[in-house]
Amino acid sequence: MILRAPTPEELPGLSDMCLRSQASWGYDGKMLNTFRQDLTLKPEELETDALMVAEDKRGVAGMVQLSMNTDTLAQVKKLYVAPNRLGEGTGKMMYVWACRTAQENGAEDLLIVSDPQAAGFYEHMGAVLIEKTEPSPIPGRTLPCLIHKLRAQA
Prior knowledge:
Elements: E1 2-4, H1 11-23, H2 29-39, H3 45-48, E2 50-56, E3 59-68, E4 73-81, H4 90-104, E5 109-113, H5 119-124, E6 128-133, E7 143-149
Parallel strand pairs: 4-5
Antiparallel strand pairs: 1-2, 2-3, 3-4, 5-7, 6-7
Helix pairs in contact: 1-2
């Protein structure tokens, strides 16, 4: 398995993979349509964020998007594994990459706003639940907000 930067031409297929991965949690079509805009990768994100594709000889297994929110805070904006590739260690590999890349760019903390069903993965990887947040466009839906400390506290 390798990690590599995606090409602009791959963004529609990667966005579709993110939506299929989200669908694997059992969301209905209406909810998935609500998620579609947030899960669509935009060409300008190739310039502003760090994106990586996990791939092997069988094809794309997942993707991760990391953003530096401030000089000391990075955020995992997307981390999705293709549904047929779950359980192979792809998510862990991409998460470790995100932590290392954030550290290399000066981040002390890694923020994750997670789907409720994926929060356990992030906790297993060392992130700690800090609060629930209520993002739009889905009124009344709360998402776990987690922090992974990247630097030891003095």
